[in-house]
Structures are given as structure tokens and as C-alpha cells.
Amino acid sequence: MRLTRIAEITGGKLINLKDDIDIRSLSSLEGAEEGDLTFVSGKKFLNLVYKTKASAIITGKELDIDKPQIIVDKPDQVFYELIKVFYPDEEVKGQISETAVIGKDVSIGEDVYIGDYVVIQDGVKIGRGTKIYPFSFIGKNCVIGEDTVIYPRVTLYPDVVLGKRVIIHSGVVIGSDGFGYYQKDGKHIKIKHVGKVIIEDDVEIGANTTIDRAMIDKTVIGKGTKIDNLVMVAHNCQIGENCIILAQVGMAGSGRIGKNVILAGQVGVADHINIGDNVIVIGKSSVPKDLPSNGVYGSSIPAMEWNKWKRILAYLSKLPDILKKFKS
Question: Which sites are catalytic (predicted)?
Fold first, then answer.
């Protein structure tokens, strides 16, 4: 694509252009070659600008370098939008594979793609434009909204509800039983879970994430929330709108999370915890009690030299005795 055309698409100001350039691909500052377009979005990357081999740069302000530049307000966002232009998704036409197994009373909307060896049980409803890729399993009475994408080897247990434009990546399991048992005669007796899972519109769920069904009510993932890979959401949890849940977060049962919450990687949330709106929890932190809205919380310990950490641990073990001396 010609650089002048890219400037038109982005609405940016094109400077330092002597002859129009044919841009073949997009790249990072470090990995760019001649014919590539790259971008710079912050001061910490400016040192890379002078080393890049890219033929042109998208930037927020004019750079002191003799290369063509497209100046825009938000160069990172503009670059992300250009990725969609240069690398469009593969078009999958609406069709149902001959190897798919379709149950009774299944409602399938227009332009739906159902791939090889997909199993769809009785009573399922699938909205227009949805794509279900090979080897996925859709349990009885599931409801799948319009323009949803279900990638290979996804499992939806019965009665799961997906909204519109939901994206479910490979290996996700939604609607499995919650981890619930009671004691009887010295044995662990399984508690039957008959609730539902509701995934609202515009949610994306990363690979190998698991979301358990509620015992009798519902587990809910709110509109616009994005969940990373390898996340565990237990039974009866309710996550609000527009949250970001990063990899390896674990939520125990019946948690409540507000809107616009960010749980960073490996955060652990205890059962029956309430987290308010607009909260950020730093990676590797535990959340053993409720967190009010509009705060940043964390208790993680950054990596340090091992022998130093062992000395700190030794002092920590002596703190109770030291406190007793102060009190006396």
C-alpha cells in the first residue's frame, strides 16, 4: 500500500516524503526492514527510532530524523487499526460441515459456520454470523448470540448463554461444575450444580480459561470484559462490565467484581469477596477481604537476590519477639 494512501486512511499529516513509498508490511522499531512501516508512542522508545530500518514512522510529533513520518494524535492506536487493514481475518463463509453432529430442535441463524466434527446437542440456538470451529462441543439448550466466534476445541456445558460478538479461544471450558462438596459420614459428597453461566456482549475469553456454572443461580461475565489465558472463575462469581482479567488469575466462589476493574497476573481472590468499581490489583497479590472502589491495591514482592531474601525472612520470623520487647 502506498504511504500517501495510508496517510489518507489514518487522517495523519505526512512529512519528509520525497517520493511515494510502497509499504509492504508493518513491524516494530527493532524488527523493521526496508519497506516496513513502524510507530513510536513514547519517549522511552526514541533511542530506537535512530536505529530502525523502517521506511516510514507513525509518530505523535515530528522526529529529528530524515524519514517520512505520519503524525497523528495516538500513534499506537492508529498502528493497531492498520494491523486490521494489512492483515485482515480470513473470510469463513457460512456453511455446516458434513461431519458436524447436530441435535434436535437446533435453531441456526443465517451465515453461520460450523466446522468439522463440531457436536451441537438438542435445543441449541445459534445467532446469525456466528462461527464455530472444528472439534468444539455445544451442550443442550445453549444460546449463542450473533457474530460470536468459538475457536477449536471449546466446550460449552448445557445451558450456557453467550451474548453477541463474544470471542472464545481454544481450550476454554464454560459451565463445568463448581468445586463444591459437603461432609457426610466422613466422606466428601458432591454438591450438584444446576445454575447457569451468562457471558454478555463483546466479551473475549483467552485460551484454556475455565468458568464454572453456579450452584443454583448464575455466574456472570459482564459486557465488554476481556479475560486472558489460563484464568479460573469459580461458581457464582459475577464480574462487571469492561474489566481486564490477566493470565493465571484465580477467583474463588461467589466473588463480586465491579466495573472497570483490572486484576493483574496471578492475583488470587478469596471466596465471597466484593471488589468495587475502578479497582486495580497488582500482580501476584492475594485479596482476602473486600476492596472499596477507586483504589490501587497490591502485596506482591519483586524478585531480589536470594541470599538477601533469606536474611529478610530470618528477621521476619523474629518480629514477634522484637515487638514484645518494645511493648515491655
Answer: 235 (proton acceptor)
Same domain membership, residue 232 and residue 155:
yes
User: What distance, in Å, lies between the first and last C-alpha atoms of the chain?
Assistant: 78
pLDDT tens digit sequence for 250-292: 999 999 999 999 999 999 999 999 999 999 999 999 999 999 9
pTM greater than 0.85: yes
Question: Which among 136, 140, 147 is positioned nearest to 125, based on CA atoms?
Answer: 140
Is 169 assigned a catalytic role?
no
Residue 224 burial by CB count (10 A; 0-12/13-18/19+): exposed, middle or buried?
Answer: middle
324 inside domain? no
**Residue 27: Cβ-neighbour burial (10 angstroms; 0-12, 13-18, 19+):** middle
Domain identity same for 76 and 137: no
Of 208, 226, 257, the residue that ends a domain is 257
Q: CA 312, 316, 321, 324 torsion: positive or negative?
A: positive
Print the domain residue range for 153. Answer: 101-257
Is the Cα torsion angle 45, 53, 77, 249 positive or negative in sign?
Answer: negative
Domain count, the chain: 2
Cell of residue 54, nine digits: 523502517
Q: In one letter, which amino acid is 192?
A: K
